[in-house]
Amino acid sequence: MADAVEKEGGSPCSVDFGDGDEPSPPPADADEEPGVSHGGGPENIREPTFQEGIMRPMRVHSALKSSKNFEDFRRNRPFKFLHMYSGPNDPLGQAIKIEAAKNRLETVVLSLDNKIDQTLDLSKPSSSTAIKQEVARGEWDYTHAGFPCGSFSMARHNATPGQPGPVRDKANIYGYQGNTPQQQAEADRGTRMATQAGDIYQEQVRACEARKVPPLATLENPPGSEESGGAWDLPELQKALEETKGVKIPYRSCAFMVKEKQRFLKPGVWAGRLSGIEKLQKVCRCPAWIKHVPLIGKQMTSLAAEYPQGLAEAVAKEVVASWKKTLNLEWWRYQIETKAQEVGDLQKKWLENEDNKSKAADTRPPPQKRAAAMAFKIDNIESDDMASGSKTIPIKELSCHVFHCLSMLER
Ligand SMILES: [Zn+2]
Predict the structure, then answer these.
(1) How far is the CA of 288 from the centre of ligand 1 (A)?
(2) How far does the centroid of ligand 1 lie from the alpha carbon of residue 262, in Å?
(3) 281 CA → ligand 1 middle, Å
(4) What 3-state class would DSSP assign to 83?
(5) Residue 154: which pLDDT band, with cuts at 50, 70 and 90?
(6) Lower Cβ count inside 10 Å, N or C end of the chain?
(7) pLDDT single digits (tens) 200-250
(8) Ion ligand 1: residues, CB < 5 A
(9) Crossing angle, helix 309-339 and helix 58-66, to 10 degrees?
(10) Cα(255) to centroid(ligand 1), Å
(11) Would you state the pLDDT for residue 150?
(12) Taking Cα atoms as reference points, which of 1, 27, 29 lies closest to residue 15?
């Protein structure tokens, strides 16, 4: 059966019959929990600042203010990755830490999973609300959620004695009419985890846009089938992706397991906003002698639930590339805002050149605005070029004018 499932493009999820550990799903409006316990500690989160309409999280602002040069800023400004439903080991979080370290970026990774913290329930609306508020303030530099797909399970449509049947299909994506209350509660919980993940995703894209940095927010789930449907068929998720111009990239797990003899054919979809995300699109090119391991039983399923190392590394590479760009954008905008007269001639020429390339050259905003707009065009250049360039900028005493600007920023 599992073979047939695999050939049809099934997923390990298709044999994950839900959260057996949980006696009964909590009610949809279980809101009494005191928010989410993320182990992040009382972080003293403060409201972001705004300069020229660009949002700057307070943590970034503080790092900019306290850094004497770009290298200082690089050290003082950790990039924060929020990984929801990370699983107990979080290979993606690990890969991001390693890739960031290779690029001399500091990182903070928060892996949220109830296998790590049993008091955590991301299906609770209160958890989602708390996370969304943080996200809206620009507290995270990348968010990802591979939310549970059990209730969208495909293999449930193949009757298995002793195992629960399906609670929905593509035509009844929120649940069958004939569901028992318990079945419907399970469907609702699955729907909630998916749509809340979609909400947080959308909030993160918005926050990145408000910060004018490359949007970094993704979701992951199996593709589902024509008959069974999948989380991607939820109108809420479709809307979230549409409104954020997010893309859906299908891949096979085995394509990222080239070093392993035993591979999972497991299909997945990585979706959202991540520059370079299209590089994840990979089909199975395993040689004939490779054995695709059938995903039967909880043990295999949970083994395959973890992202393959190769996939985690591929994602980490793109994430860190975007972060390097963000680091430069933040640094350069701040330099232009606070000490425009000290930005080196070469940099100015480069910025001017970038500006001339922009099509709306005739409708020029005032110089101050233009500088900020130019800084945003840093996209097209190598981050490390910027970094070395920035080192050459002499940092003199801040003028009274700059102090004035900064105090304005702090208000
Ligand atoms: Zn393969």
Answers:
(1) 9
(2) 9
(3) 13
(4) strand
(5) confident
(6) C
(7) 999 999 999 999 999 999 999 999 988 889 999 999 999 999 999 999 999
(8) 254, 284, 286
(9) 60
(10) 6
(11) 87
(12) 1
How much distance in Å is there from the Cα of 257 to the middle of ligand 1?
8
Residues present in the chain in total:
411
User: 95 alpha carbon to ligand 1 midpoint, in Å?
Assistant: 22
Ligand 1 centre and the CA of 312: distance in Å? 17
What is the C-alpha R_g of the chain?
Answer: 23
Sort strands 217-221 and 247-252 into parallel, antiparallel or unpaired.
unpaired
Q: At 349, which amino acid appears?
A: K
In this prediction the pTM is 0.77
How many other CB atoms sit within 10 Å of the CB of residue 117? Answer: 14
Whether residue 64 contacts residue 81, with contact meaning beta carbons closer than 8 Å, is answered with no
Q: Measured in angstroms, how far is the CA atom of residue 285 from the centroid of ligand 1?
A: 6
What is the average per-residue pLDDT within 262-273? 94
pLDDT band at 406 (very low <50, low <70, confident <90, very high): very low
Q: For the chain, how far is it from start to end, CA to CA, in angstroms? A: 64
- What's the CA-to-centroid distance between 228 and ligand 1, angstroms? 23
Q: How far is the CA of 291 from the centre of ligand 1 (A)?
A: 8
Rounded to whole angstroms, the Cα distance separating 159 from 163 reads 8
Domain parsing of the chain, residue ranges: 2-324, 327-410
